[in-house]
## 1
Amino acid sequence: MSIAMASCGRFSGLCSGVRVIQKQPFSSHGAFRCSFAMDPFRRICILPNRLGFNASTLVPKASSATVEDKSFSETAEIPTPKVILDLDSDPDATVVEVTFGDRLGALLDTMNALKNLGLNVAKANVYLDSSGKHNKFAITKASTGKKIEDPELLEAIRLTIINNMLEYHPESSSQLAMGEAFGVLRPHKKVDVDIATHVHVYNDSPERSLLCVETVDRPGLIVDLVKAIADINVDVESGEFDTEGLLAKAKFHVSYKGKALIKPLQQVLENSLRYFLRRPTTEEASF
């Protein structure tokens, strides 16, 4: 099963207010064979109190008729929000799972917002365990009926879900990286990216290896990770991307020319991603 993330013309920059990070070239390699098929000048934008794409793809605002449940005591302990994008478990659809303790309702507004991205939402179900209520549903692209394999669209899905969570459950902002800029409550603790970043590659089979990444969450991270992997000619075949509070965790099945990564290439990939994720950001205005 191939996720088509590596063949991309250019990837979107991020803008916040007057700050704009211009897009960088995105090389084309191997197994991620889908194209973003998007305007190369379009940017992913972060707007005050609203996460979204401008121009042709907007992160939709949920309808004003709120059906998400917000009736919780302000003194109650705030659970860790989780958003999982799973491209492994279902060959025909991208599986999305959203958890926020037992505070989430039926997520009808969130599902409607996803439909506004041009997606079909099906197979919705809910299950309970000790960590809370898990809302799980399968999504496909409405125009093709196929699973979502476009990194930019996957990132739009993730931001849409987080955006609705911030709107209907503003207390979640204290547990989300996006809450630093757009939430009612800022995160109570800062996460050191050097300490929080872990990258490991394991042998999975003769045909592929398993790349595991954990780091501090930020907007655009899915696209950035895929680009960084593709830049060293490594192909991503399938994966899962989890947002867990202030952290992001990714698991990608990777290969090089149809084979598992040899030890020297594993080391190159690990070192490259550690440097990429830990490097300090520099304001454009400083030049």
## 2
Amino acid sequence: MASASLKLSIAVTCALLLSSACHGLEVGYYKKSCPRVEAIVRDEVKKFVYKNAGIGAGLIRMFFHDCFVEGCDASVLLDPTPANPQPEKLSPPNFPSLRGFEAIDAAKDAVEKACPGVVSCADIIAFASRDAAYFLSRMTVKINMPAGRLDGRISNFTKALSNLPPPFFNITQLIVSFASKGLDTEDMVVLSGAHTIGISHCSSFVSDRLAVPSDINAALASSLRRQCPANPTPANDPRVHQDVVTPNALDNQYYKNVLAHKVLFTSDAALLTTPATTQMVLDNANIRGLWEDKFKKAMVKMGAIGVKNGFQGEIRRNCRVVNRY
């Protein structure tokens, strides 16, 4: 009877906490099968981030976009094929804005030379996003990222559209979207802080932030109107920094920008539309180190979404194609 109670307790804890351990993930997963994998990935990511901080921002965003569609299974990496001409990476939330694919290719190539057929592309994305956060935060965000994911075989254009929260979502829609992935409101506010790094196409915010009345700071709006066309098109869609104060640093400046109404997206401004999320923004902006600590935990929690195991997945030889090709 006691054993049954213990099993029930563990099951309830897993359901409530979405613990990485409950998904078969563990820190140091490759310590025997490929002991240098994390150092290899970090070295490759460092090369790219030090040349272009935007690639680091892209890797963090890639982890988010991968995990929210089909789970953390590297489905976002799959190229179009005759059998699947429209994978996730060609869907509007990812194309043409998602960056960092070449960094993942380089990391996978280096890992395959050391340990062929051992490390999944899904884990390489997780490690790369962790390392990008480390370098962009000036080595202050140190994430203990568990591993043990498998690569998925399905990548669907439409599922990216239906699962990734767009920049025009309001607070209720954001909470529902994140809750559907097992993430709570605080996780949503904390992960939104990744908007402190990277760039955005004008088309992601012009129509609902500049073309109509909004709470955006007047000076920022004026600056953006000088950089962005009134009606962006695929042929004329400039990119701007999401955080004009510390554009190349992963820090808590995003929350200070939210409070000053100096953010690009409706979804950013939405964080001030409920008392609870407003308080979270204030705390993250004003309490030294708070956001960084919460971000580390939220990244690990997100990394446990929809993990494949057994017959559900594989370890791809090439991150861009499933093994049968």
## 3
Amino acid sequence: MAIEDADVRRFVTWKIFPFALVVGTIWYYRQKGVTFKSLKRKLAAIVLANLMARFNKKREIVATKKRLFSNLEEQKTNRSQKLQILEIGVGGGANFTFYPSGSQVVCLDPNPNFKSYIQQSIEESNVEMKRFIQGFAEKLETVEDDSVDSVVCSMVLCSVRDLDKTMSEVRRVLKPNGTFYFIEHVAAKRGTCLHRVQGWLNPIWYCFSGDCQVNKETGKAIDRAGFSKTSINNLNLNTYVFLIRPILWGTATK
């Protein structure tokens, strides 16, 4: 009898209870009018904001971003105005701390749940949010031609659907001589073991990472985008996720 009772308890604990918890959670959020898609976005904002905050604390990343953004202040086309930055895939605003004081940032992201994290980053830095745009890099319809001094992408281009269209939009919104700043993980060199592994695992990674793809040849897309000048560098970052190597960083001038 005692054995049967123990079996029943195990069944309830490990089978019935988890199932009931999942069903109850779904029912609760449906009663609140929360859809699965909106819940997924909330969770994504929590996870990604914290991951990028930790990523930005890595010694190599801090040093690289300081070098990357060191000449942002020089990008102002009108010294009497504030620096105008468009950050694509702004997330929680982890890059704000590297921007010159008083910069005005147009924040673009498809996930509106990042707004609270952006506000926190603004309070911890000396930048201003000019506006938040919920949208995608391939369609910057609400950003005017030749309207921003700089465009920034940080670990974002891995998830865009059309790299060439994105680069075209970046060039369109930049002012003459404006600069595109980027730091992105990209596909490994063709013919290497890592490149083959990235190709094999990319479909699985894409499903579980929220649209991130590890086999994007972002450097080639930047090279063929028609910028007047490009500077692309490699970053040897020791990360436990070997799939998101190598990392490229640099600038491209309109």
## 4
Amino acid sequence: MCTLEKTANNIFVLTLTGDNEHRLNPALIGSILSALHEAKAQATSGSVLITTSRGKFFSNGLDLAWAHAAGSKPKAIERLTHMVKLFKPVVAELISLPMPTIAAVNGHAAAAGMVLALSHDYVYMKRDRGVLYMSEVDIGLTLPDYLTALFRAKIGSPSARRDVLLRGAKVRGDEAVRMGIVEGVHDNEERLNEATMRHGIQLASRKWNGEVYKKIRKSLYPELCVVLGLGDAKVIAKL
């Protein structure tokens, strides 16, 4: 599951709790979505979201074990399809959240776990532990349209997208910086948390209008927003 806490600096901290792989099954997806709805409902000018986790994993992707537990291949495919559909609103909510967002990736982020991280405005990693990894090409799964649209929106280099999606590259922190996927890497969890909180406080101090911020973000990713069903961006004037 996950928790949501709000600091005195107007920063929401969403934490994937427990010392497990944070596999994205219907229960965890629902918990994350509820936390995002809560943050949006409480948002004021200058709010910021930081998403992090406990344990070795940021998130190891969709819960394939839950899918296979259905007992047959058709039922497993049905469960997997169900999770893919459930996860789409999480990506949509992050892309349309009325505040800056930061992912503090303090462990492995694989498949949908990497997608969760990339759905934020800024991504930071640990240097000593954790990789970004899209495992689908290795395990024989195709990608839904909203995931490929997200990668086209968030990773500018065609060669970087190729290596991540078609080569199944396991990207560590320093390489992720060189590829333009993450903002920076830090030597340990303490420094990672300090850096993301410091960045969050800097963003919060600007006290931006969240609705304006959201509209500008959406205008940066028109293809992604269409696929996510977020509609067209409209101009908001500050009167």
